[in-house]
Design brief:
Length: 383
């Protein structure tokens, strides 16, 4: 029973780890508290749902491969959303953690409502507004007198773009009627069907480890390997590490720090999309899907050590295993011979109470080691 619980805990830990990878980049390396990280995971899950429905029309043989296209699409969609979020909001709030937290929390609420309400009319309006407003600003920014005309350009483009988008949406609503105004997803959860080769599980004695969990573990390992290679072997990865350690010196050496910020945030957002794609295989997807993981994800990053990917791996496996061992009642069975301990662990033998106990233990742990399992070291940290 204990071995079965350990295997179950490791599978849960892998889910936490894949959801924490993107946050470890954005929060750990950039110091940005992105409360919309869970909603980026949710967008990745909904992207998987859309790709699944598109592949259903190609027959069963092609449908079995949809998950690979969904991984690429989830990463691309959430990376683009993250890039827009960084360019439009976050870059103006660097060094101001409280404002960043509030802004990204507001964006998370907007993304939740967007998923509930989005339809053809709203989609047309958003695309037109973004193309006219941001496209116009990008074109005007190439002019040599951009700094002088920046404020009047924004004041003109915003209302004009909004007016054109609203007019186009009204025309589409009148032409399409019910088709264009019907919500695409709604407030209810939607189901993602795993390919046939991911159904069932691997039998280990009397325990069955689902193939979906094994797939998520493999996806997590692949993401970790790819992230390690990118940060340590690629040119842009080295630039990210340089800017993280000393932004002023990196700028003096010619590294485009603004592009590095945008790339880092887009990378972290894309990893959140991959996490959403993997998580969508475990259950129904809804507007609140990301909220189920955001707190645990932050705990993984903080306990592991800010900016330490190895720490995130250890913390995710520890937290996931502890949650499963306590919530499944395994500890209550193991301590049958010690009645006080059995009663104690029996009281916490539910998923919600197990989280209470684990979070309490984390609070105590952080009082002893506020820097986490693998704290940052060096003169830059002391400064």
């Amino acid at each position: 029973m204990f071995v079965d619980a350990i295997l179950g805990g490791l599978s849960i830990g892998s889910v936490l780890l894949i959801s924490a990878l993107g946050l470890a980049i954005v929060f750990g390396l950039m110091g940005v508290i992105n409360m919309a990280h869970g909603e980026l995971m949710m967008l990745g899950a909904y992207t998987t749902f859309v790709v699944q429905n598109l592949f259903k029309g190609f027959g069963d043989g092609v449908f079995e491969l949809y998950i690979f296209a969904a991984l690429v699409a989830s990463f691309a969609v959430t990376a683009l959303v993250g890039l827009g979020l960084e360019r439009g909001v976050v870059r103006y709030l660097y060094g101001r953690p409280l404002e960043t937290l509030l802004a990204t929390w507001g964006i998370s609420l907007m993304l939740q409502q967007l998923v509930r309400s989005v339809n053809g009319v709203l989609a047309i309006g958003l695309v037109l507004f973004s193309a006219l407003c941001f496209g116009g600003l990008w074109v005007l920014s190439k002019r040599p007198n951009w700094q002088r005309i920046r404020v009047p350009a924004i004041a003109t483009l915003l209302p004009v773009s909004a007016g054109v988008a609203i007019a186009a949406g009204a025309i589409a609503a009148n032409v399409g009627k019910l088709t264009m105004t019907k919500p695409w997803f709604g407030a209810q959860n939607v189901a993602v069907t795993a390919p046939g080769w991911l159904r069932g599980g691997m039998a280990i004695d009397n325990f069955q480890l689902p193939f979906t969990r094994l797939f998520i573990i493999g996806l997590t390992i692949a993401c970790m390997a790819g992230l390690y290679w990118f940060l340590n072997r690629s040119t842009w990865g080295l630039r990210i590490r340089a800017v993280t350690q000393n932004r002023a010196m990196s700028s003096c050496l010619g590294i485009p720090t603004e592009r590095v910020d945008a790339l880092t945030f887009a990378l972290g957002s894309g990893l959140a999309g991959l996490a959403g794609c993997g998580i969508s295989l475990l259950g129904a997807v809804g507007p609140n899907t990301g909220q189920n993981y955001i707190v645990d994800t932050f705990m993984v990053v903080v306990v592991g050590g800010v900016g330490k990917l190895v720490g995130s791996v250890v913390a995710a496996l520890m937290i996931g295993t502890a949650n499963f061992l306590i919530g499944s009642g395994t500890f209550a069975v193991l301590f049958q011979s010690v009645p006080p301990l059995q009663e104690f662990f029996s009281f916490f033998a539910t998923s919600s109470m197990a989280k209470v106990m684990v979070f309490s233990a984390i609070i105590v742990f952080l009082q002893v080691r506020p820097g986490g399992l693998f704290p940052q070291k060096g003169r830059s940290v002391d400064a």
